[in-house]
Amino acid sequence: MSGRFRQALGLQRPDRIPFVPAVYEHKAWFIGKTPSEVCRDGSLLVEATLAEYEALQPDAMVVGIDVYNVEAEAAGCGVTYFAGPDTSVPSATPGGETIAEGAPAGSVAIPDPRTSGRMPLMLDATARVAEKLKHRVPVMGAVTGPFSLAAALCGPATLFMAMVSNPGWARDLIGIALRIALDYGRAFAERGLGVTVFDSQASPGLISPARYKEFVQEPTRDLIAGLKSAGMADVPLVIGGNTDAIVDGCIGTGGNYILCDGPASTRTFVAACRAARCAFRKNIPSAVIASATVEEIRHQAASEVALAEGYPGFILGTGVIVYGTATEKILAVKGEAELKGPVVR
Known about the structure:
CATH architecture: Alpha-Beta Barrel
CATH topology: TIM Barrel
Shape: globular
């Protein structure tokens, strides 16, 4: 990775605050296609991601549409796609899980990133975009964290209950998910690519901080260590929701760039990340960008920048952009990043 995003991860005082919006299904809008079309066609995915870059000029990018579905689908879970003009995001098919509670965790099929499901498509598309933009911006693939992948394999409610009623089985399944995620991540590394780890099923809004420490932190740390051993210098970790209560746990996974989502406290993250020398991204919430005026969006972004107190590892971003959002609203956030000159603290 290079440029101001890489400088922020290294706390090296970039010339301005890096801007990294969360653009997934909205990629398809840039080329007049639906998310279900683009996520299953490598050429369309490349086209949509390049169009996103041209429109927004972000400081880092992730190639992906429905980023939580790829590994689960490759392991046998059902995914619902939408036909015609329907712009809904592909989602897990109800009842389409691949394992029931109590069944041997080892019965889950271990996908081969070279041949299984959409894994080869994602690897190829990410490599093609990275080649096109290699002198301009860091381009990463998406890997699902072990906990969120385990939740997809058996269903979130099943995993949440099993942590209480059948903790050994839950750990075994998370271990299988770790293996799948690491295999997939290493396939990106073999192509000289980096990844972002997505694990929002581990948000405190869904499981307690104690459960995070007990079930999530160690396998996530093992995944990130494995990715670094495979050659990735930087591994961002994305967990949505209010993660104030687990900020130290997120830092403890070894991810050197973590997410301060809309509900979380910028002040809390500045203090924790300054102490740990870790970068973080603050999201302006999706709902604000969808409903507020450009002026209101800029005002909130400016407020978050002020709360960051000049921290050199601060990155400004957005929650997941809703399909069809006006570009000027996304660029309103970027405008506040661009107003800020060299970091002085």
